[in-house]
Structures are given as structure tokens and as C-alpha cells.
Amino acid sequence: MTEFQKLLAARQQVENIFELTKDNEWREYMARHLVLLHVELERQIENCIARGEDTLLTDKDKPPTMPE
Question: Which one of 13, 32, 53, 68 has the fewest CB atoms closer than 10 angstroms to its CB?
């Protein structure tokens, strides 16, 4: 699993927690913490994209290259 995939999965998990706690009495308290985490994950995802590391393939999944 690439770092990019891990970040995408983590972001999805945070979004799932938002959804699961939508009727929770303490939702606003939890949301304040989750928002900070979500924003940081978005920042790191954008950094991966900017560096060109936004591939969903791991090194072992990539086809072999021919030697030059």
C-alpha cells in the first residue's frame, strides 16, 4: 500500500466517523477534533499530488521495465 493510498484510506475513515456520530450527543466536541485531522490529511494528500506521488500502485504492482 502506498503512502497516498494510506492517506486516502485514513481520510475515508475520518469521514466514516463523522457519519457514524451524526446523532451523537457529543458530536460537536468530536467534530472539532476530527476536522483538524481531516484538514491535515487533506494537506498531506495535496503534498503527495504536488510531488507526483499520487499513484495507487505500489512498486510491486508496477509492471517491470526493460533494461536500457
Answer: 68
Q: How do residues 50-60 score in pLDDT, each as one tens digit? A: 999 988 766 66
pLDDT tier, 20 (very low <50, low <70, confident <90, very high otherwise): very high
CA separation, residue 36 to residues 15, 29, 30, 42 (Å): 12, 12, 10, 10
Write down the domain spans for the chain.
3-50
pLDDT(62) > 70 = no
Name the 3-class secondary structure at 15.
helix
Q: Using CB atoms within 10 A of its CB, is residue 7 exposed (0-12), middle (13-18) or buried (19+)? A: buried
